[in-house]
Each structure stands twice: as structure tokens, then as C-alpha cells.
Amino acid sequence: MILLNPGPVNLSERVRNALLRPDLCHREPEFTDLQEAIRAKLLSLYQLDPAQWVAILLTGSGTAAVEAMVSTLVPPTGKLLIIENGVYGERLSQIASIHHINHQRLSYPWGEAIDLAGIEAHLRRGITHLALIHHETTTGRLNRLSGIGELCKQRNIRLLIDGVSSFGAEELGFESWGIAACAATANKCLHGAPGISFVIVRREMLASAKLPKRTLYLDLETYCRMQDQGSTPFTQAVQTFYALNEALDELRDQGGWQARHQNYRELADLVREGLVSLEIRPLLRREDASVVLNAFHLPLGLSYNAFHDWLKANGFVIYAGQGKLVKSIFRVSTMGAITRQDMERFLEAVSEYSQEMAGSI
Ligand SMILES: *Cc1c(COP(=O)(O)O)cnc(C)c1O
User: Fold this and answer.
1) Residue 190 CA to ligand 1 centre (angstroms)
2) What CA–CA distances, in Å, run from 13 to 18, 64, 210?
3) Which residues have C-beta within 8 Å of that of residue 176, sequence separation ≥ 6?
4) Cis peptide before 194 (omega within 30 of 0)
5) Given Cys at both, which of 11, 185, 240, 291 links 62, Cβ 3.0 to 4.6 Å?
6) Are 8 and 194 in contact (CB under 8 A)?
């Protein structure tokens, strides 16, 4: 089955085989070595200096990392501005509400661009932290962070990024954009197995992660302190660690995030052009979308469920729209161990389906 949903992704044989390595206790030195290797590889992927940055590993899906980041790094005296233009931006606000974090929301319609003037106006109000999504998977929009980072730098505001569906395949200017922390996951653009996620944090951010703590299981300060000592506060998903370690080696061997970006770019263009030739229109312009996922208007009169089920019977899983977009769009992701041939076969399958539908009217 070819998975065109935005994670979990198809694993390569190399990564799948890593899941079968010997059983391992998370309190033994072999686990420490594994954990340390992954932490170092995550930093080196974006050439981050280990003296300034740390990768903190959690057992949990991407949302665990996002919740850990927001609930740990905004101190009780802080004020968080959340920018929303999709489901995941709105989730940031849910997290802030649940943890009683002093926050404001700046909402844009799903899929729309964020305007710097709007943010600038909000930043006057005693804001200390700003959180937003890099790649808003709801619509495939890649939010441009460099201008926002510049505004934050000028005002000494800490920038918290949900990079769950961009880390490993899109540019992330940790230093140049002034990112303070970025949450991400093993099983999207890194091509690991689901079950672990992580936050890349500027070390100085943890010094100010003061008591009182808002969370026990998701407290980044505790994880960081113990992982720096080669330990872990709780049981980690050991097999998933093996797989991520292998996936990071595979990514390095393939040429790093830049090569993965290029590969996704080619697949995304192939899908875009192929679907446009079948009169299926993309939701966003090419320059506004990520290379990781593209959303398309569901052709009028086409039932998503029937379309999905037919494609699934032919070996492809596509992804529905969420919330208010559930009836109007479908999404195709380019992540995972999939090839150009897989995408060509996918387009042939869609073409065959459109012909069947045309014939049945
Ligand atoms: C996938 C995703 C998440 C996390 O989803 P999980 O189901 O918890 O892994 C968070 N943010 C974005 C932008 C995502 O694409």
C-alpha cells in the first residue's frame, strides 16, 4: 500500500529492518548510546551547534512534542501570541488554554497567508513568545517565517515553531530566523516509524523554564536534564529509536534535507501537473505550498469516500480534508519511501477513475 497521507509514512526496507534489532533495556548503556546518536544527528541535520542547541526526545506523536514545547517554554509571567491559519494552529491555542497559559490568538482563514502588518500590530501588547505552524498540513501552506522571525528578533520575542510536517524536508533557518524552539516528529519527513517526537531547543530557553511546572510527563526541562546525563525519565519506545537512528543515517546518505526537499519537489510537481491535466485544481499556488503536501479541490459531484475507497482498492491511500474543508478538498503527500514510479501509477489510477466516472454519467 502506498501511503499518500501526511504520516505515518511508508518505511524503506532499511528502516523497517531496524525495528527488529535486539531487545534493549532503556536503563542500559546501549540505550544511552542510541539516544545520544539520535540527538546528535538531529542537530547536525540543520548544522546546529550542540553548545547552543539541544534535541530532546519524547515517546509520543508529534502533538506530544508540540504540547511539551508550549507548556514548558512559556513561563508563568509570559504572554504568548498564537497565529492560526489551519487546524494545527488552532491546536496550539487549545494547548495554551488547557495549560492556562496567558495567550492571544491571531486567526486567519484556513489556507490564507499570514500578513506581517497584522502580527506587528499584535506584538505591541506585551507579547513575550510567539507560536505558529511552519507547514500548515491542513491546506499544504508553507508559512514564511523569516519576516516573522525578524519582527520577533527586534522585540526579543521567543519564536516557537511547530515544524512537525516540515522538519527534514524544508528549510528551517534556526539561527537566521531566530527560532527559539521547534517541535517535530520521527514519522513524517524523517521517514522513521511512528511513536517518538522531539523538540529542538535553544539551551538558554531551558534555563528560564521555571517552576511551577505545568506538566509531569511532557516537561522538557526534566527530559533535557536526564538525557544530558545519558538517562531518560520514562520508558522510551526503544524499537522506534532504532528506526529513527537508521532513518537519519539513510537521510544523511541520500544528501540531507536539501536532497529530500528536491526529491519531494519533483514528486509534488509531478502530482500537480498530472492532476491539473485531469482538470483537478490545486488549492494553493505552487509558490505558496510546501513540497511535502498539496491539497486539491475535489471535482464537483465527486464523493471523497468513493474516490478514496476506489484508490485504496488500487493500492493508494489519499487523505481527506479536515473540518470545514472535509467536503471540498483532498490531500496528497509526497513524504515517505515512495518513488516517481509510484506517483506515476497513482496518476494513472486517478485518470482511470475519472474516465469511469465520466462514462457513468
Ligand atoms: C501531523 C502534525 C502534527 C502532529 O500530529 P500527530 O498526530 O500528533 O503526530 C502537528 N502539527 C502538524 C503541522 C502536523 O502536520
Assistant:
1) 13
2) 9, 27, 44
3) 146, 149
4) no
5) 185
6) yes
Whether residue 35 has its Cβ less than 6 Å from ligand 1: no
Alpha-carbon torsion 49, 51, 57, 61, what sign? negative
**Ligand 1 atom with the shortest distance to the CA of 163:** 13
Rounded Cα distance between 219 and 214, Å, is 8
| Nearest ligand 1 atom to alpha carbon 165 | 15
Distance, first Cα to last Cα, the chain = 30
The answer to whether the CB of 74 is under 6 A from ligand 1 is no
Measured from the Cα of 187, ligand 1's closest atom is 9
For ligand 1, pick from 59, 61, 134 the residue to mutate: most ligand atoms within 8 Å of CB: 61
For residue range 300-354, list pLDDT tens digits in order: 888 999 999 999 999 999 999 999 899 899 999 999 999 999 999 999 999 999 9
Per-residue pLDDT reduced to its tens digit, 195-215: 999 999 999 999 876 678 999
Q: Which of 186, 78, 189 is nearest to 134 (CA)?
A: 189
**pLDDT, tens digit, 9 for 90 and up, residues 263-308:** 999 999 999 999 999 999 999 999 999 999 999 999 888 899 999 9
